[in-house]
Design a protein that fits this description.
alpha+beta, 45% helix, single chain, 150 residues, 2 helices, 3 strands
């Protein structure tokens, strides 16, 4: 014998791979379809959460600005309300939602004197953009400040 071997037929290695690849394409599409809604809910939830935090900070800042205006003896109650609304125009806070009170309601705003305490507060109704991210339909954002008249 000369030691020569008969040629061995080797199956085409690409044939099984093609079948596996075709099957995996369908699996990837199904996984994508299952994961995409969850991913989008998380992304939009983060965006809405950021909007909520911005609204809280903006309402708090606006009420502090209103307290500074209220501490001046030359200001009027309407100027205080307008200062609060002007400081939160980005979220749409209106001056009619702002409350101003001197010495827990015991004194008129125009009769306040040095040392009196002026209480400025407001509540802003935050509307979420996605109904399925946050459970409550609206979230009330409130802020308050107590300032001494100069």
């Amino acid at each position: 014998m000369s030691g020569a071997m008969a040629p061995v037929s080797v199956p085409d290695p690409r044939a099984p791979r093609r079948r596996r690849r075709d099957r995996s394409r369908g699996g990837v599409a199904v996984e994508f379809a299952l994961v995409l809604p969850v991913f989008l809910a998380v992304v939009f939830g983060i965006i809405d959460g950021g909007r909520l935090m911005m609204a809280r900070w903006m309402v708090s800042y606006a009420v502090q600005r209103g307290g500074r205006v209220a501490s001046l003896r030359t200001s009027t109650a309407q100027q205080v309300k307008d200062a609060v609304a002007a400081s939160a125009t980005l979220i749409g806070l209106v001056s009619s939602n702002v409350n101003v009170e001197v010495n827990s309601g015991g004194k008129a705003f125009t009769a306040r004197a040095s040392g009196d305490k002026v209480h400025v507060w407001t509540t802003f109704v935050f509307q979420r953009k996605l109904a399925f991210v946050f459970v409550p339909a609206t979230i009330n954002v409130a802020a308050t400040t107590l300032t001494v008249v100069e």
